Amino acid sequence: MTSDPQRILIFGGTFDPPHLAHAKLPPVVADSLGCGKIIYVPAALNPLKSDTPPTPVSHRLAMLHLVVDAIPHAEIDTLELDREGPSYTVDTLVVLRQRYGEDLNLHLLIGADHLLTFTQWKDWQRILKLAEPAVMPRPPWPREKLIEEIHQRFDATMAEFWIAHLADLPYLEVSATDVRDKITTNQDLIGTLDKRVIDYIRRHDLYAPDSRRNA
Ligand code: ATP
What does pTM read for this prediction? Predict the structure, then answer.
């Protein structure tokens, strides 16, 4: 599909660490939606995960650059890191519209876990007015299981809406939690992380027991 510079894919996350699904899937979605740009938005704090403080921003940002700088038409916007307190997607979308142009078509890329908690997000109805969602099946919800889950959790109209916004993607069995566990227990990381991210983690001794909170 031809890409439209006025159509932007927004992809937020903790990226602790950024893994292969974060690197491989957004470009596929951007291509299928005709987005001319992908903006990765690293979160300072996930308002729904505030009990697990993430790895220091400096490391998460450095690792994210190793991934995003290699993706054509992708960039990082640090607006959530520059802001005080927890980040709410609705506020981010408002700022991005002001920053990049009110006439933009924004698409918000989220994984299945976020879809299933979406009605807990601040001003979720407004989010859907500011950006059209695209949802990625992800562990533990491959596409068919996710469709079943959507039917259980949403009324018929919203279920139809969400199913229409499922992205057609390969199912990648990787998560940041799994990667962190693998590092902590010294398991093989092949197929989970970019080689440059692995090197960075080793160099800075991240995710080893007792090293998580060191800047
Ligand atoms: P954690 O395991 O700590 O929950 P994560 O792997 O979900 O982390 P995040 O940085 O929170 O990593 O994810 C950013 C976005 O990427 C979220 O929308 C998440 O649902 C999505 N995502 C993560 N892993 C996958 C995957 N394997 N396939 C598709 N989307 C994914």
Answer: 0.94
